[in-house]
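pinging the channel bc i need a second pair of eyes. not urgent but kinda urgent?? the chain im working w is below, pasted from the shared doc
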Amino acid sequence: MIAPAMNTRPDERLSYIELARQGARVQRQLAAQDLSRLSSVARIQDDVDVALEFYTDELGRHWVQGSAVARVRTSCQRCLERFPRSLHAQVSFCIAQEPTASELAKELDVFTAGSDMVLLSDLVEDDLLMALPERLCKSEPCEHAPRLSYPASGQGEKEAGSGVENPFSVLAALKNQTD
């Protein structure tokens, strides 16, 4: 049986041990300032929707699973244009403190807690960062990317708008003499 969603402030530290014992479900909206690392690489458009369920398994380990959804505007690393994206992160891991966390990490996904209290933002931020796409542009080649080749200017002509004579015009003139 899952307990009803708890009413707490989004930035409040929660006891994951107590939440797991109760089989609690936590639904919150986190503001951009609660996710500082994500905010540093993408502009968060709206509050981030978080839904997490806590439980204790038959071995007494404390688990969290759920999802987080964020709407962001972020820059494509190819063309530097900003695009809107929806990030969907699924979380599922065991929560433990040291030294137990190190032992469990050999076989499980583990979130290492500094104490028995955690912030919801700490539980979802890494997975939201990993949900950022490597490439945002859909078309290949990207219509926004800077051009990587330019047409050659006429032989012996000055470069367009630069007022500088083409340094290879002498070679072109020599080539034309031998033909």
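so Residues 21 and 58 are 12 Å apart (CA to CA). and The longest helix spans residues 120-130. — does that match what u expected or am i reading it wrong
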